[in-house]
Amino acid sequence: MVTGSRSKKIEALLSRGVEEIIDKEHLKKRLLKGQRLRIKFGVDPSKPDIHLGHTVPLRKLREFQQLGHKVIFIIGDFTARIGDPSGRSKTRPQLTVQEVNKNAETYLAQAGKVIDIKRVEMRRNSEWYDKMKFGDFIRLFSKITLARILERDDFQKRMKNNINIYPHEIIYPILQGYDSIVVKSDVEIGGTDQKFNMLIGRRLQEREGMKPQDIITVPLLVGLDGKNKMSKSLGNYVGITEPAFQQYGKIMSIPDDLILDYFKLLTDVSLKEIAKMERDLKSKRVNPKELKSSLAKEIVTFYHGKEQAEMAEKEFERVFKEKEIPTKIPVFTLNKDTLNILDLLTKTGLVSSRSEGRRLIEQKGVRIKPKDQKSKIPIKNWQEEIKIKDGMIVQVGKRKFVRIRKKLV
Fold this sequence. Notes:
This protein has helices at residues 4-13, 24-32, 52-66, 97-111, 126-129, 134-141, 146-149, 153-160, 167-182, 195-207, 244-252, 259-266, 271-282, 288-304, 306-321, 341-347, 354-362, and strands at residues 20-22, 38-43, 70-75, 121-124, 187-191, 214-218, 331-334, 338-340, 366-369, 377-378, 385-387, 393-396, 400-406. By secondary structure, the chain is of the alpha/beta class. The longest helix is centred in the last third of the chain and has 17 residues, at 288-304.
């Protein structure tokens, strides 16, 4: 028998942070009956790091775990070599087996900060796909028509804009759908961009005489720019392994209209409290900065602990209000006399690529502070050669700093 407390948890599970459920009534009945369900979540480890956007479906998985259901975590080590076309205007680059395996290790360690990895049934879809013969793939692909696959919005847009679609991209949804058959999925969770792939899973299950999985789609988290989906390639992300100070500062930079969504999707703060925040914002009884500070502390506490969150808050006040350099910043040793600014930024890890460094310089986001000066010198030319001096500080944006130590040869 389902208690009142459990019933409320089920209601929250099916509403908070949910975009759409197919079939909601069917899933709700199963949950209220107390059936133990198999919850499928698949990820292609195309990149090693997880940002807050990835945690939206992970938090939903955690809710299912707390209600006693079994999470089936599929590492798409086979499908990652193909590349998911969902939400893409061009073909994804294909990865090697070594790249996929390396990314998978990091991904799992980070996912463990949100869900209980010890209680997860971990599968890799290479388990079944590496064993399948060509004839098996032909039989699988014959279960879905090409017209059905080409219905998806991503492919329609590409055809309209005369952008290539390759055969390996067409088979991707079928492979993801077949995963649902293998693991006997009752429910699959994914972002709204995964809806098409998950529906293919339902259809394939039906054709195999299985009960079709229910589907839960969750919103795609908007990034720090307030416009686009959170993405490392766009630089509008908050990594869950980033230092507490960086996480705190990035959250403080979000547009005001994202505050409530971030509370709903990224924290355990009650909906009742969030509703009060909304009323206070509308009536201007609260300064948005106060709510951002509360949000930043919630998120940093979750990933780093309360003590680190409090230290991050104090450091933020010191650095941004008093325009000071952080008390603790990374030190990087160089044995060069001069270095191109883009090489300096990439070597120190302040940017992930030369193109990112060039973009930030053009946006006036790079500064250098010599050891013996108080003011910071803005870098205006991405071709500039920098004289390397001991103790100089390189700053990118508002939150990234590196102190240079010059190694004597």
